[in-house]
């Protein structure tokens, strides 16, 4: 269906030429639906898969209401023995599932997965089985989601290169909007309306800034080019999954990929579960530290380790710390200024009974990783730090002063408790 | 030592690197609102680029590989190439520098890097391309795999170690796979050359024999010499010399644009903190009691 020009929330501008708008409608009807690339392990979905489905459902319900259309949420699954998983994906919000079952797809391998997903994304037959009304002009998906993890991050990049479109990574907010854009290259400085544009918000490395990325067709007459799908990778743990509903109905479409021998060149020889030396989940307390250690990094880390020993706590860090900003001795650096310890959207999510944040300012991306902790104590000299709104006790002071006293108190009380026992 | 297995053709390696803000204390500067002050912050070879370069050096020591380092950036990015040469003892340094490259998103950057790596193929095909895990400023981690796909190379991500069968031209590698809510997995894979590798942050080269350690020292000394005269090894290409299509690079070649940048609004307070004075022993005692109550209570469950 062509987009109406009398949509709500639309600012019509006389300067936008009628022709541009018409050709827009023809162009954009070639791109339909929201495709989600599912991640799973042995048929069990990784949580972010269900989170993406939940957000996709909300976005497309809104979209279909607003544009009087019936575009679908389509889950794309690659694997072996995935029948049950396909049904589950419908219960969690998919209108349709494209299932690619093949022994060569048992484990994620970038090369073969990229080939298969790109074929799926361009397949008219699949699209017609999903929704006959849009099958005529179907070229590629309108939107596409991947998860921003070890697998999806790379897969999204290779798939979108194959599909010759753009990609935004590590997204934590999505909005679909009609936008009027004036851009030196995209529109040659003219004001042009881009309908149904996916605004993709990504927090920057500091955690304080939000950058909105758009993937836009080039409407500049000199460099006309279409860039669809509009695609992104989504940070795990950000969006809420829907309630599982076994009454929900959808279609499952089987897809048979065309594979050459060369596509099977990568072989998995062995897979072994490994335990990260950093183990947040089996500790009742987690202590994290941030840039507040800067006045005496080595000594402060030693104090933090003492506190951790006292509480049998695992130690985490904020994202800036993982970039090794301070010169400390090599063992301390490799043990603690370590990406493996990052808590937040760029690292791990924790929910211990007790979380102690020492010299952590509390950027949004860190908060996302610890907000479900039971009880939160912050030690910080600055009462204006955002962490103050995310903790139960805020101990105001420099860690150099607070930690020795606190450790001493803890020790004293422990001794007296042991005496009583 | 496995160097110079006489029948095998030499191994050609390329590394793509990036000049990035230096996040180390004393060099990094933050604005009062916590954002990076780019004007006041120095630039260095990115830490992940440095790890990728070290991974290439492993192939030089073990297999006698010939190394080229490449970067896209302004003239000042030479310093990143020099640093990478010091780490890897590279034979060639490539700088792709042109005003029309500026404003490129990751796809348009990958187009330049792909074209550059293709240019290295004059003497023989590039067998392995290394790139870092992600840049510490952009943090997308996209440019590597995008370049790989444009080159039509097999992409292997999160590699923590690798070895090569020089006769069969097959690489075996270990990869670390970390997924939300599942135990980490170390996966061992094999793939025929050529391959494109992004190196996991935990990668460490291991030179576990005397001959490898001696070779490593020899190449390190050579690297110091070369890096002092790095300009002798440096080739600078503009868009025309590189032979890229101007429609596919820089702003015109970028599907994505930055629409807006804003401060992330302060979230609604989730908790109400009791503020206590860290220099007040009495108050700290109460905090300690609370801590024992929580940790102890859980222990007793």
Q: How would you describe this structure to a colleague?
A:
The complex is a heterodimer of chains A (421) and B (301). With 421 residues, chain A is an alpha/beta fold. Chain A contains eleven helices and 18 strands. In chain A, α4 (110-122) packs across α6 and α7 packs parallel to α11 (399-420). Chain A starts with 17 loop residues before the first helix and ends with a helix. The relative contact order of chain A is 0.11. With 301 residues, chain B is of the alpha/beta class. Chain B has one domain (12-248): Rossmann fold (3-Layer(aba) Sandwich). In chain B, the strands form two sheets. Chain B has a nine-stranded mixed β-sheet with strand order 9-8-7-10-6-1-4-5-11, sandwiched between helices. Chain B has a two-stranded antiparallel ribbon with strand order 2-3. In chain B, α1 (47-63) packs across α5 (210-228). The longest helix of chain B has 20 residues, at 281-300. Residues 1-5 of chain B have low confidence and may be disordered. Classes of the chains: A alpha/beta (421), B alpha/beta (301). Chains A and B meet through α4, α6, β7, β10 and β13 of A and α3, α4, β7, β8 and β9 of B.
Helix and strand arrangement:
The complex is a heterodimer of chains A (421) and B (301).
Chain A: H1 18-28, E1 31-37, E2 40-41, E3 44-45, H2 47-67, E4 73-79, H3 83-91, E5 96-101, H4 110-122, H5 124-130, E6 140-147, H6 152-162, E7 167-171, E8 173-182, E9 191-203, E10 209-215, E11 230-234, E12 251-254, E13 267-274, E14 285-289, H7 297-311, E15 313-317, H8 319-322, H9 330-336, E16 354-358, H10 364-370, E17 375-380, E18 393-396, H11 399-420
Parallel strand pairs in A: 1-4, 1-6, 4-5, 5-12, 6-11, 7-11, 14-15, 14-16, 16-17, 17-18
Antiparallel strand pairs in A: 2-3, 8-9, 9-10
Helix pairs in contact in A: 4-6, 7-11
Chain B: E1 12-16, E2 19-21, E3 43-45, H1 47-63, E4 66-72, H2 78-88, E5 92-96, H3 106-119, E6 128-131, H4 143-151, E7 154-165, E8 170-177, E9 184-192, E10 195-199, H5 210-228, E11 234-237, H6 239-242, E12 256-263, E13 274-277, H7 281-300
Helix pairs in contact in B: 1-2, 1-5, 2-5, 3-4
